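Friendly challenge for the regulars: who can give me the structure tokens for this chain first? No prize, just bragging rights.
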Amino acid sequence: MMFNLDMKTIFISLVFGHIFTVILISAYRKHTVQNRSFNAFFLAKLIQAIAWALLIVRGAIPELLSIVLANTLLFVGAVLETGALLILQKVFCEKLKRLYIIGTLLCITGFTTIYALGVSEATRIVYASVGTSLFLFYPVYYMVTDRNASTLKRLMGILYGIVALSLLLRAGAALQLGNQVGLFTQGMYQSFSFIALYMIMILGNTGYVLLSKEQADAELLHIASYDEMTGVLNRRTFMVESRNMIHQLAMRQSQVSFILFDVDSYKMINDTYGHFTGDRVLQDMADRLKQRLTELTGEHYIFGRYGGDEFAILLPDTDEVKAGRLAEQLRLTVAHHESHVLPVPYTISLGVVSVPAQRNIQLNTLYELSDHALYNAKRAGKNQVAIYNQEQAEAMLK
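First reply, four minutes later:
Bragging rights claimed.
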């Protein structure tokens, strides 16, 4: 059955949809720190609302306004909206920014030239559809292929991909059917176009808000889980993740190793060079050891700050021999490094304990055993690795 939708009703719904989004974003921004992504999305919705408002009064105002200006604003709105998505995901580099600016200018100039030459509406539809779809390609590619993408992000990428594909199909239909696919030509294509436009508006508005909320939640989780100074896990999160890992290892009847270490003579560094230098020492050490741990284990470790200059590493599926070798590699990583930024060299001492993983192992017990080994390393002259006797450790855990 053929059905037709009233053109002005659809355009009015698009205008109010974008205006309501602008109002909601304005209310939200009053209580948050403004950022480039929100600003770009806010401006995109405002510009799109104006563009659709101009189309409502087509025929009552000059075509330069209802066709050329309206489509110019739609190009700019599409660029700002996709740019907001890329800024939100922190991939909108200067090179991409220049490409988007150049692409926008080409689209606007080309469309204006086509109109000035009096070319058919179908040609304008092809040009506008293909031009707009090009701006979606990179956001779609990034959101779909990003290995760390959430389900929501990947789904948004797929949906935006469908939007880009539908724009290309509309361009193809315009080549075949001419003006029949125009927004102002009544018929089946007009109705489907209106439905598509409305769904695209819902997708853009709702999707961006959900992605923003997801990113904000992830940032809050990161703040709550990581040590601000060094970027490693804080004590609470380290203990939670370590307990979970030990339970998994216990089911496999595997080994687990715990390494506790700190900076040798750290109090002297603070007293002599100041706490600012002391903080930089911890940051430098954490960065170097994270990189070395990743090289040695392939990210199969849990690394956290216990407090002060005291750090801990949990190594799954690692026996005493492997843990001792890895600890020695970490010691050498720090001892053999000469920093041109820090005014003082520093070393670390490490205590190691390895035991069979058991569900009832208390993390505090592993800490105490490795702390005892660390004390022995300090007593042996610092810049040392000491391993707690595994037989004694197993006896204490029974």
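The chain has two domains: 7-225, 235-397. The two ends are 77 Å apart (CA to CA). Your move, everyone else.
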